[in-house]
Design brief:
The chain is an alpha/beta fold. The chain is about 35% helix and about 20% strand. The protein has 23 helices and 23 strands. It is globular, with a radius of gyration of 25 Å.
Length: about 625
């Protein structure tokens, strides 16, 4: 057996650099490169190996959480067929990735994390940044990754990578099991040499199979649909990842079954398709929620039925409603006691179409759906065109960006009140023009995610929409975008605090407590002081902050300024921040219910009222078996 002597880190990088994926006869390299911050726990191991492997591109980042967000966004844009390696030092470098690792796993997006670890030899202990345990010497902070990883392993001997790395790739390339994968490698093991089999480093192509459903389940589903009067499709992220959208469009146009969309599923149909009901659930359109209420069969395609999608289990009120779940994951396919069509969305729809040949919903039903589509689009225009003095509403800002963006451009967001408004209001013109991270709704994803989306397809204009709260949490990757020449347009909305949770707090009777960026009141000792004149807004200059990170900045005071800024930003060849303020108290009406626990007893009348209102909503909650 021919061997090659390499360090463990060199062997890991050499192996990963030879991994490819293939679906439908199209092959591509799985890892587009490696993000990293090289500290004492990985600089001499992984860092040296990456430096030596010239054909694997290395990218710097400014925060370890950011690089995982960037990798996840890239994987999302690539339909999970490509991603990045993320390597860090031990200790805080590693644990900084935890939040984004959870996001990748929750959103079913592949990212490989390789944090450094404490010495396997234990000759030097405790090392800098080591978490000591009095009950075990085999625990490090990297054990924190176990619950947020789809696969987790620690390499304590060189030969263990021969078995671990194929498992890493199996999970990362699995449509049903993918997510964050963590491979913790102690810093001394990274630099240790071993004679590895040369054959281990041959090119390896992982075939992404299109799993087909059970034929008996398929026939049951077709029979159920044929008997239904008011069926509804809920399109989730899986419809995109399986590249099933053309098949879905044909299926819908043949059967006239309407489509409503989750955050991850938005863009499954063009916004003005007459079968398109738009956003569903707590942030849903009136039409989507009205049809959800009466639907007798709900066909979920690649959705995990989050509480926003089901409006906390109040959306589907038909007493005889049944679910058909098309999903590659058994766990999701079994939800709501649904008929399980476990398989790839594209092939399931193809085979279901054959069994439903000649079936169409009643014309009265499809006409009602079409009218919902038209009436909502008219309402969107009304919200886009709302004008009141010079103070912009969030709906106007969304409208300005949407009206200006080309069909192929991408809007990207993650947290706050923006996602809900975008879900309801954004007119999707192509399948990838709407990029929302709402499985984890992670504040700080936006700019790092925008970088990943741009890296995945540099031909697209990326419009990152972000509030001041998220911006202040994680804006550093503006620097990375400047360094690498990946231009984004960042629409930075200053709300003088947390607009979304301020609104939520008021809806729960808590009057927006603790959500404004204010000085502490010396008399009351409270930060929250909307009605106290002495509590001036903190003098935060976010525009100057963005300039200091290297961005071109355009400041806006009114709607005309905003539209002109969008035009100007299109002509600038580096990351541009469009800064504007927003009326934090003006929102889009018509949101559905979302369950958030409210204090059962309180001295505040507003909280008492909110609690009693919630009890009325809870009476509508359904459980499906």
């Amino acid at each position: 057996m021919k061997t090659i002597r390499l360090t463990v880190a060199q062997a890991v990088i050499k192996y990963l650099n030879q991994q490819y994926v293939e679906r439908d006869g199209v092959e591509n390299k799985f890892f587009a490169g490696c993000f990293g911050i090289l500290g004492h726990g990985n600089v001499a191991g992984m860092g040296q190996a990456i430096q030596q492997q010239n054909d694997l591109k290395y990218y710097q980042c400014r925060n370890e959480q950011s690089m995982v967000h960037t990798s996840a966004a890239y994987a999302k844009m690539k339909n999970r067929l490509s991603t990045f390696i993320c390597t860090t030092s031990i200790g805080p470098g590693a644990t900084n990735m935890l939040t984004a690792a959870a996001g990748a796993t929750i959103n079913r997006l592949p990212v490989l994390l390789i944090p450094g670890d404490i010495f396997a030899s234990r000759h030097v202990a405790p090392v800098l940044q080591q978490l000591e345990s009095s009950t075990s010497q085999d625990v490090s902070v990297n054990d924190c990754f176990k619950p947020v990883s789809k696969y987790w392993d620690r390499i304590n001997r060189p030969e263990q990578i021969l078995y671990a790395l194929p498992e890493v790739m199996r999970v990362l390339t699995s449509p049903s099991e993918t997510g964050a994968v963590t491979l913790a490698i102690p810093q001394d093991v990274q630099a240790e040499a071993f004679d590895f089999p040369l054959e281990f480093f041959k090119k390896k192509t992982w075939n992404i199979v299109r799993q087909r459903p059970d034929v008996f389940q398929l026939k049951k589903a077709a029979d159920l649909i044929r008997k239904s009067k008011t069926p509804l499709i809920i399109a989730g992220g899986g419809a995109h990842y399986s590249e099933a959208l053309d098949v879905l469009k044909t299926f819908v146009h043949n059967t006239h079954i309407p489509v409503a969309e989750t955050f991850a599923g938005k863009g499954a149909l063009r916004y003005n398709d007459p079968h398109q009901l738009g956003a569903v659930g707590a942030t849903g359109t009136p039409g989507a929620n009205a049809i959800s209420k009466e639907a007798d069969v709900v066909i979920g395609i690649g959705t995990r039925y989050s509480d926003f999608t089901t409006a906390s289990k109040t959306a589907f009120q038909n007493p005889n409603v049944e679910f058909i779940n098309i999903n590659v994951t058994e766990f999701d396919a079994a939800k709501h006691g649904g008929l399980m069509l476990q398989g790839d969305a594209k092939v399931v729809l193809e085979e279901l179409s054959e069994l439903l040949e000649g079936y169409q919903v009643a014309k009265t039903y499809s006409d009602k759906v079409s009218e919902f589509n038209r009436s909502w689009d008219a309402k969107v225009s009304e919200i886009y065109d709302y004008r009141h003095d010079n103070l912009l509403s969030q709906g106007e800002i969304v409208g300005a960006v949407n009206d200006f963006a080309d069909d192929n451009d991408v809007v990207l967001c993650a947290a706050g009140s923006l996602p809900g408004d975008l879900h309801k209001l954004w007119r999707t013109k192509s399948s990838k023009s709407f990029h929302l991270e709402y499985g984890y709704s992670c504040m700080g994803y936006e700019i790092a995610g925008g970088l990943g989306a741009k890296m995945a397809d540099p031909s697209r204009e990326i419009y990152v929409m972000v509030g001041d709260g998220s911006y202040l949490m994680l804006s550093q990757e503006i620097v990375s975008s400047i360094q690498e020449g990946y231009k984004m347009t960042i629409v930075l909305i200053d709300n003088d605090g947390y607009k979304s949770i301020g609104s939520l707090s008021r809806s729960l009777g808590s009057e927006g407590y603790g959500t404004r960026y204010l000085y502490r009141n010396p008399d009351s000792e409270k930060i929250d002081g909307d009605d106290v004149e002495t509590n001036a807004v903190l003098p935060i200059n976010l525009a100057d902050n963005a300039r200091s990170l290297g961005a071109h900045v355009i400041e806006c005071e009114n709607y005309n300024d905003l539209t002109n800024a969008l035009k100007m930003a299109k002509t600038i060849n580096k990351t541009t921040v469009i800064y504007t303020t927003c009326d934090r108290y003006h929102g889009v009406n018509g949101y559905g219910w979302w369950e958030v626990p409210i204090a059962e007893v309180s001295e505040m009348d507003t909280v008492k009222k909110a609690y009693n209102d919630a009890l009325e909503h809870k009476k509508k909650q359904r459980f499906y078996y």
